[in-house]
Amino acid sequence: MVECVEKLSNVTQKRPSRLSALIKTAVSALLIAALLYKSDLNQYVELIKNSSPVYLLVALVLTVASIVLSAYKWQLLVMAQGFTVPLRSLTSSYFVGLFFNNFMPTSIGGDVVRVYDLRKMIADGPAAAASVVAERVLAAFTLGLIVLGGVLVSADSVARYKPLIIVFVLLCTLLLLAVLSAHRFGAVLARFESSVVRKLKETADSMRVCVDHKPTLVQVLIYSLVFQLTVVAINIFIIKALGLTVPYGFVLLFIPIISAITMLPISLNGLGVREAMYVYFFSQVGLSTEESITISIFFFIIVTLVSLIGGIIFAVRK
To answer: Which residues does 6 contact at the CB level (< 8 Å), separation at least 6?
Structure first.
């Protein structure tokens, strides 16, 4: 009887997960289909055929470099908690997480894999989770800084986006404050008794250790800013590869917002949503639907190609 109940429980837990995955896949498929329906497929062929492989190669190299940089700032947060983990191991884990993003409902789904990997390395689940969350949130905060930079460069052209920019920057700031005040959440959680709450409290306490060392916090914020600027640069080189002209200020403004939106768990790895956002924002600077989607497609292909490094690492592990 107990076995039957456990099986039934497992089934009921899997059904919502499967339904959610199907919905997100459907959202991605419908958005892509709608965008392609309104497009001239011949233009995609022309854009891709006439693209510069040199600029695309630069974008590919920058993508690899950005992953190594991300692994390094992750290592700084792990070290702040008193653990020693080789950069090579964290870089491998980051690539594997990037690979698993291809099958996850958001562009940060692979973070679960990173937490799992690090937990095996340091034998401390809450500390592993805290380092991954802190690394992501600190990177998210710098998205807001870059958007502000885009505003400064394109001050005369962003009046219509003012409410969106204000909300975005506030959300990024609130995320940072949440990490810096994580220990207070831990104090509240300490009042409740359950294994899940206890783990959450331990994670909150570990989060405090991550950010308590101010030199480390400043370093991670600086490297996060460099990382986000690298993502902007990757898009700029893709734009150059296609022979298009977009003001750098607009790229600084749009790309961080698009990156944040693709993190929302409403599609499969941001597919469809990312393309729709590229079309919406880049149409404001005169790009056609086909040109905007091609930029997005090249960005997706480059990230996917780099993620295959993680697939190879994962296969070798087995």
So the answer is: none
Read off the tokens for 35: 């965008």
pLDDT at 182 (0 to 100): 64
Check residue 102 and report its DSSP letter.
T
Q: HSE of 31 in the Cβ direction (CA atoms, 13 Å)?
A: 21
CA distance 239 to 51: 9
Contact 299, 234 (CB under 8 A): yes
**8 A C-beta contact, residue 235 and residue 300:** no
Structure tokens that stand for 270 in this block: 């941001």
Q: Is 242 strand, coil or helix?
A: coil
Residue type, 93: S
Can you give the pTM of this predicted structure?
0.83
Residue 11 pLDDT grade (very low, low, confident, very high; cuts 50, 70, 90): very low
What is the rounded CA–CA span in Å between residue 136 and residue 221?
Answer: 11
CA atoms of 83 and 276, how far apart (whole Å): 42
State how far the Cα of 108 lies from the Cα of 96, in Å rounded to an integer. 12
Is the predicted pLDDT of residue 185 greater than 70, yes or no?
no
